[in-house]
Amino acid sequence: MSRKSWHLDRRTFLMGTGASLALPYLECMAQDVPPLNRPHRFCGIYFPFGVSLPKPDSQAAKWRWFPDKPGRDFQFNESLLSLEKLRSKLSVIGGLSHPNGRKMGAHDTGDTFLTGAHLNGKYLRNTVSLDQVIAKSIGPQTRFASLTMSTDGGVGEPTRSSTLSYNDQGYPIPALNQPQQIFDRFFGAGDAGSLAEQRRLKSTSQMLDRILANANSLRMKLGNNDRQKLDEYLASVRQIEQQVGQAQAWIEIPRPELSDQDREKLQLASDDEAPQALIRTMYDLIYLAFRTDSTRVATYQIASMADASSKAGKFPQLQGFKGSLHSLAHDWNKPQGAENLGKWDRFMAEQFAFFLGRLDASQEGDATILDHSLILYGSSNSQTHNNSNYPLVLAGGQQMGLEHGQFRQLSDSIPLSNLFVTLLNKLSIPTESFADSSGELTDILQS
User: Rounded distance, CA 398 to CA 379, Å?
Assistant: First the structure.
């Protein structure tokens, strides 16, 4: 296609006196990219312990998380009412879950929200998460293959993980939880902004080369068990090698510059003492990472199943509720319990609506970032101790072939992994199966 004089390439730099500065993302850059080739993205967002689900004919029915009527004529109840203005760009989904999750303990399934694995007392190794399958395919196109975030940070412990992301060996990927740290990595000097860093990367690369070169000769001398352990270790080394290689490829390219307006909106000093400010800042960082094409894959775990030690366990109290997040979910069937949990669900949905609104307000050619993104929001409990009928919202992707504007109440015989297969295919990652999938979930596709 021909390029008009005011159309700029997405990788245009200002050059002068031996230095270069990356331009911010401009509208004219999107005009240069054919619609089918525009960036596609994925974001997975998780919260624990389920939602308020009083019976539809009860006095507390308006706090029921799921709408009462399937189809296009559904009405949001109070819990999700903040999503009304975006209803044409999202679907509420009921009925799905991971069959392996139904075999596990009541609060053991947060680790498997994006993997579908079966964790038990003897074998706590997870499997690769959906986001990392995506990152492996499209990650090399951006500076960062993926962004992994949570309220608590790190990895937590098995069945009480503080990350949603797992590599192809099933090992947890540490989550970031400090807004300033994430900002510095993506938009500040970062980890590769100096000559010393270039030297370190080169030295690391040479060291990894030597390790891998000696591995094959050592492997031939080992027994089966030791050989398996060595292979697992080498898989980790190769993953580091790929990360180093990607860092080297981007080291000469400046990080994106943010506008003063973007910087002013960020509340980088937010911490777990101010839940709304913290959650919105984390959402803002994902939005900016997507908008600047710094990454196309992100996960965000808001609280973990380890409520007693989770920083987010106290979030309800800081927002004026009584009790911890865990107790709020446990007491849903006590007097006023459904309403109390429903009001927390409403608070969470309002933050999610804020995030979707930012994505939808950012034009990308003839559509928006949301239209080119797949956003999955939900929990691995319907109610606390119930590992079926996950409450899910799938948003975005209308330029990728998804059809929205419905409450889809699906059969509980359909594995959630069927949805994952469909999302992977819509991201141009040809996939026939994922975890325990039995096929695609064609219900969400445009006819």
Answer: 23
E-assigned strands of 19-89? 19-22, 41-46
Q: Which of 106, 113, 102 is nearest to 435 (CA)?
A: 113
CB-side neighbour CA atoms (13 Å) of 338 = 16
| Distances, alpha carbon 397 to alpha carbons 61, 254, 315, in Å | 31, 30, 31
Q: What is the pLDDT of residues 410-420, one digit of tens each?
A: 999 999 999 99
How many CB atoms neighbour CB 435 within 10 A? 23
Q: Write out the two tokens for 325.
A: 């997040």
Residues β-bridged to residue 16: 19
How far, in Å, CA of 133 to CA of 141, rounded?
14
Q: 357-364: long-range contacts (C-beta < 8 A, 24 or more apart)?
A: 357/85, 357/86, 358/283, 358/284, 358/287, 359/287, 359/290, 359/396, 360/86, 360/89, 362/287, 362/291, 363/27, 363/30, 364/30, 364/38
Alpha-carbon separation of residue 41 from 82, 134, 421 (angstroms): 23, 9, 15
Alpha-helical runs (H) found in 77-167: 99-102, 130-138
Does this model's pTM top 0.85? My answer is no
DSSP 8-state secondary structure symbol assigned to residue 415: B
| Buried b / exposed e along 402-414 (16+ C-beta atoms within 10 A) | bebebbbbbeeeb
Q: Tokens for 42?
A: 């994925």
3-state SS class at 177 = coil
3-state secondary structure of 113: coil
Largest CA-CA distance found in the chain, in angstroms, rounded: 72
Which pLDDT tens digit goes with each residue over 353-409? 999 999 999 999 899 999 999 999 999 999 998 999 999 999 999 999 999 999 999
Beta-sheet pairing, 156-157 with 160-161? antiparallel
Cite the DSSP H helix spans in 361-426. Answer: 416-426
**Tokens at residue 169, please?**
């060996």
d(CA 312, CA 252): 39
Strand partners, 172: 166
* Model pLDDT for residues 209-244, shown as the tens digit of each residue: 666 666 666 677 777 777 776 676 666 656 655 665
